[in-house]
Structures are given as C-alpha cells and as structure tokens.
Design a protein that fits this description.
Elements (H helix, E strand, L loop, with lengths): L12 E3 L3 H6 L1 H13 L6 H10 L1 H12 L11 E3 L6 E2 L4 E2 L1 H6 L7 E7 L7 E4 H17 L7 E5 L4 H12 L3 E5 L5 H11 L3 E5 L1 E4 L2 E4 L1 H10 L5 E5 L12 E3 H4 L11 E2 L3 E6 L9 E5 H15 L7 E4 L6 H7 L7 E6 L9 H8 L4 E4 L1 H9 L4 H4 L7 E4 L6 H11 L4 E4 L1 E3 L4 E5 L6 E2 L5 E2 L5 E4 L10 E6 L9 E2 L6 H7 L7 E9 L5 E6 L4 E3 L2 E3 L1 H8 L5 E6 L2 E2 L5 E2 L1 E6 L7 H14 L8 E4 L13 H8 L4 H4 L11 H14 L1
Helix pairs in contact: 3-4, 6-7, 8-9
C-alpha cells in the first residue's frame, strides 16, 4: 500500500535571515565554538545537524560543555545504552534542573511577569532574587508537610507565576510535578491526578477568560475530596475574593512567605522531573514521565539554539499549563530570559490583544497558534501598524500546521526583521523534532529542518528511508527527553506499544511527513487518521490548508470512514463563517479549491456544514474519535468527554452517523 499522495506545495521563502541575523544567532556561535574548542569544521547548519546525529554522544557532551551545565557529579559516560526504549543517558550523573535557573538569581531586572485580561488582577512581576526567595519559601512549606524526593505535587492552575514557583519548589526537593490548567473540569483533572496519588495540591480559586471570571472553588473541593493521599492544598487567590482558611488549606501568601536557604537536592540524571499527560481522547490519559537531566539538556538546546533566546530577552507564549508549551515557556528561564504568564483569552477584549501584550512587554519571542493568526487575518488586524513591535525578533507558531497563507500574512504584516517559524514535536518528548533554524530561510508550507540531535527520517511501509515522498515520521536514535516510562506501566508494554511496535527499536511518532531534498519537512497529518482512498493514502493537513484559506470557511475536519460493505466514505465537515449558509454553489467552490490546491484524490465525497469542530483541550482536532463515531461507535467508548473542548458538539456527529445508517 502506498503512502499518502502529497499535493503540490507552494514552497517559497516567507522569511530569510539577514547577514546580521547570521552573525548574531546563538546557533552560529555554537558552531564557531565547536571549531575553536574541538576543531570541528562544520560548514553550515546541515553539516552541524549531520554531525549531531552521526556523533550523538559527542554532540550532547559538547552541548553540556557549551552551556556549562551545573552538576553535583558528572559520570564518565554519555550514552551507556542506545537501545530504544530504555536508552541510558549520563549514568552516574547527579544534578537538579532548578540549579540551571538559580544560576541567574542575581541578574538585574525581571524574571516573571503576570498578566491578565482587563478586569483581572493587576499586572505584577517577580525579580530574579524574588523568584529565588519564593521558590525557597514554597519548598520550605512542602518540606514542612513531609514532602520528600519522589512524592508527587500537582497543580490545578491557570498560566500564572505561582504555577512556575510551585513547579520549581517541587523539583528542587526531588518531588515530581504535574499540572492541569483550569479549563479542565474537575473530573478531567481527577482522571490524571488520581493516577499519581499526590501529596500536595496547589490550586487557584479560578481564572479569567473572555471577559468573565470563572470560579473553580467547587472543582478544587471535588479534587480534595477525591484525592485521599493529599496532606494539604495550597490555594492561590485570583478572583479578588477573601479566602477563609480551613482545615488542610494553606493560603499562597503564607506558603510563599519568609526567607529560607535554597539548595536543590542532587538527583540522578533520569530522576522524574514531571508527568505530562496525553490528551485522553482515545482512553485513559497516559502519564508521560520525563527526567531532570534529559529535559534540561533538550530545553537548553531548543530555547537557546533553535529559539535563539538569551539572557534579558522576553518570551511571551499563549499557552495553558495543560499543554507542553507551558513547560517550554518555563525553559526560557534556563538561559536567563524573562517570561510573561498570561491568564486570559488572546482575543479579548479585542482580536489583537495578544499583539498588544507583546508590545507592552517588549517581547522578543511571541509564540502562538495558527488559529489565532487566521483569526487576526480574518478580523483585519494589523499587528505592526497598530502596535510597537520593535523588540520582536521571532514569531513561533505551534500546535498545528501553519498554512502558507497564514505564514505569508504574518510575514507581510511583521516585515523581514521578524523571523517566522513553525515547529512540530509533542508532549511525548516535551520538545520538537523539527522546527526553526535562525540561520536558514523559512519556506511557506514547510518546517525548516530537523532539530539538532534528532535523527529524524521518513520511512515507507518497508522501513526504508525516503526523500521527496510521504512516509512515517520516525526517530532512529534516542533523544535525552524521550519518556523514561509511562506512569503505572511497570513492564513497559504500553510505552512499547505506543511508539515501538511498528518498527522495533525505532520511534514511530504517528505523523505523515515528506523530507525534501533541501532537508526541510512537510507535515501531512496524523498517520492514524490517514485518508486511504482506493489504496492511495493522503494527509488531512493538505486539505485543511486549502479549505481554511477560503473566507467562507472558519474551520474544517475531514475523515475517511471504512464502511461495513467494504466501501469508503470521505466526508468534509465545515464550520462556515458568520452569515454564510451552505449551498450547492459553495460546496462546488470548496471541492474545486481542493482539486486545484491539493489534488483530485483529495476531493471529499460530501461537504457537510456543522455547528462546530470538537478538539482536545489543547486544540487538536478529534479526527480519530469522530471517524469511530461515524462508524457507529458510542462517544463514551471512543473518548473521554472531559478531554473535549465542547462535548456537546459530539451529538451532531452521532446524529449524522445514525441518519446515514438509516438511509443505507
């Protein structure tokens, strides 16, 4: 069976680095350092990347040296066992992730900024010394509750500085952190936290979104009642109300008060740092365990070399603590950059509100989503014309594929001085496989290159590496931030089944990609949601890029449904923009656009207007669950409704499935 058929790509540069960008890029400094210190003559990024995967141990050892990583003890080996799963990195090494942040504690200026929507708490900030003091105080509070190395501390919080402080405090004593944003219901948070048997819960009384305060006190109480291992709850006030102390509840002001020493405990390189959870759309959420050392090295590489951040810069990312981009945001502290924590909607009270935040705080890097850029374009937002973005060096777009039209819109609006980039990775490795390179052009419809140290390939079904044709995204050599384990998976069977069953010993991520002859990467969508018409496989992302450029379409979802009689039905669901109704003429316009912009093979069997497209709580379309519902499965058997942004939308697809079955 063939791989997906790739449509024609319009791959033209939307951003090209200027000579000054090349001279000052951190990744270029690293390349020069390798020449001076290790006599490595690497002509360009592609040569640097090839060396980084061909000489994996030397690369990670050099990276350690370049960043002067602090460790209580450095072992003799870098990679004792390269077998996947189970690769053993830096055995005998003892360190703590928090030490790399504390080395910046005497920097002048701000470490964290707290922002909220109008009507929320006032803007506030933490200096580097105050960040250290609060981390020390909260760690002291945790120790006073008997928290020890290996215990679990969980957070139910919006994107606020208290989440960062609590994480660093827990990590500093060797406790394991996990967090859910408060957009998760109590049941959804409980489905994750109850697996961990946590000892402390840090929770806010609520959050702000779209002009409204959302109280979460009832949800917090539900969590407290259903997590019997809790010794205490630390409550963070966000809604401006007095919190009355009760048994087992400590106010944040008390938990973070006082002056205490802070000496992070040295732990093994692979000691668990945090547990991130899968979306839970295909069953019980999987707890993904990452280690101190692996995350530290991977995030130093990503933040400094690929994101091009340095001390004194400002990172503003629109994210939720439920999403790995929150962990990535925290990593900016590793290089001495400041971060902006924002509790609210990116588009309230105006569509350009996020751009205003970037201007107000002189953001160097702004991270957002393709859907936000598309909304800004539709609303006629003029970011650089309406805001002072003179400090902005980079716009990073994550979460889903950035369409060529949105990339060009951003480039037009921001001008050649601002680097546009997009990346792809996952919660699984809490990092990126492929993404931005500050010294290479960014092409419309493509991701620039595989990241350093990532042995990324595209494989056909026989396990052969291919170029300029679609294949499975695989990683053939280990990365330090690959999962240590899944939580409560003692024999490792779930971990192996998730990533290593298709190609034993090789990480299969579940994405269709094309690696071009230039070394760039084109994403085609999830391979487990592949469209397979008459033996020709296609990626859903190729259809979305065409359809969602149409002004009449706000969003779309396409699935391929195998029928009991052996037939194949490929409907396209569209959410139309306000004031637009479905008509035969509009359906023809959509299918013509797909035929011309992708290929005739990509044209759906039907175009169906729906009220909405359901997503995970981190914004990913529910392709596989919707496909299974259309095959007749009940929603509660294919996904956890608590992991869906709008569970009420599922009923529309159930109705479509029943109507189609009745007419068969």
């Amino acid at each position: 069976m063939t791989s997906p058929h790739p449509p024609e790509q319009d791959s033209s540069p939307v951003w090209t680095p200027a000579p000054a960008d090349l001279d000052t890029a951190n990744i270029e400094d690293f390349r020069r350092w390798l020449t001076e210190r290790h006599d490595l003559r690497l002509a360009d990024y592609h040569a640097l990347h090839a060396w980084s995967v061909d000489h994996l141990e030397q690369f990670w050892s050099c990276l350690w040296e370049y960043f002067d990583v602090r460790a209580a003890q450095r072992g003799d080996q870098v990679l004792a066992d390269a077998t996947m799963p189970g690769a053993r990195w830096f055995p005998g090494t003892r360190l703590n992730y928090v030490d790399q942040i504390l080395r910046h504690q005497m920097l002048p200026g701000t470490a964290l900024i707290a922002e909220s929507e109008p009507g929320g708490p006032e803007v506030s900030s933490l200096s580097w010394p105050e960040l250290r003091r609060q981390v020390a105080a909260v760690a002291h509070t945790f120790r006073g509750l008997g928290i020890q190395k290996g215990d679990r501390v969980v957070g139910y919080l919006p994107d606020v500085p208290q989440a960062v402080v609590s994480f660093l405090a827990a990590a500093s004593i060797g406790a394991v952190w996990s967090v859910c944003g408060q957009e998760y219901s109590a049941d959804a948070a409980l489905a994750r936290f109850e697996q961990l048997e946590p000892t402390v819960l840090v929770a806010a009384d609520g959050y702000h979104y779209a002009g409204r305060p959302h109280s979460r006190l009832d949800a917090v109480e539900q969590l407290r009642k259903n997590l019997p291992t809790l010794r205490a709850t630390v409550l963070v006030p966000r809604l401006g109300r007095d919190i009355q102390p009760t048994s087992g509840v400590i106010g944040w002001s008390k938990a973070s008060a006082g002056e205490y020493p802070l000496a992070p405990v040295a732990v093994d390189f692979d000691h668990p740092l945090w547990v991130l959870f899968s979306s839970g759309t295909t069953g019980k959420p999987k707890g993904i365990v990452h280690g101190h050392g692996g995350v530290l090295l991977e995030h130093l590489k990503q933040i400094a070399l690929h994101c091009n951040l340095r001390a004194g810069d400002t990172y503003l990312g629109y994210t939720s603590p439920s999403w790995m981009m929150w962990n990535y945001q925290v990593a900016a502290l590793l290089v001495g950059a400041k971060i902006v924590c924002y509790d609210g909607s990116p588009g309230h009270p105006n569509p350009d509100y996020l751009w205003g935040l970037a201007a107000r705080h002189h953001a160097t890097v702004l991270q957002t989503s393709p859907s936000y850029l598309q909304a800004c374009e539709t609303a006629g937002v003029r970011p650089a014309a309406e805001h002072d973005l003179s400090s902005l060096r980079s716009l990073r777009v994550t979460g889903s594929v950035l369409s060529p039209s949105s990339a060009r819109w951003a480039a037009r609006e921001l001008g050649p001085r601002v680097a546009i980039s997009s990346a792809s990775g996952g919660t699984d490795v809490v990092s990126g496989f492929v993404g931005s390179v500050p010294t290479l052009p960014f092409m419309a419809g493509e991701l620039t290159a595989p990241c350093l140290g990532v042995a990324l390939e595209s494989w056909d079904p026989r396990g052969q590496s291919v170029r300029d044709q679609v294949g499975e995204l695989v990683v053939t050599k280990p990365m330090p931030s690959m999962p240590l384990a899944f939580w409560d998976d003692p024999d490792g069977s779930r971990l192996r089944g998730t990533y290593f069953d298709a190609f034993p010993g090789v990480w299969r991520h579940g994405d269709w990609i094309t690696i071009t002859e230039r070394g760039s990467v084109i994403m085609h969508g999830r391979s487990d949601a592949t469209l397979n018409r008459n033996g020709v496989r296609m990626g859903s992302a190729d259809i979305y890029q065409v359809v969602e450029r149409l002004p009449e379409v706000a969003e779309s979802l396409v699935v391929g449904v195998e029928q009991p009689d052996g037939g194949y039905w490929m409907p396209l669901f569209v959410v139309l923009t306000e004031g637009i109704d479905m008509s035969p003429e509009l359906a023809r316009q959509i299918t013509t656009a797909i035929r011309e912009g992708a290929s005739p093979r990509h044209v759906p069997d039907e175009v169906i207007a729906v009220p909405g497209i359901p997503h995970t709580l981190t914004g990913k379309k529910l392709e596989v669950p919707i496909k299974r519902i259309l095959q007749g499965a009940s929603p509660d058997t294919v996904l956890d409704s608590q992991s869906v942004d709008d569970p009420g939308l599922l009923g529309d697809y159930v109705h479509i499935a029943k109507a189609r079955a009745a007419s068969a």
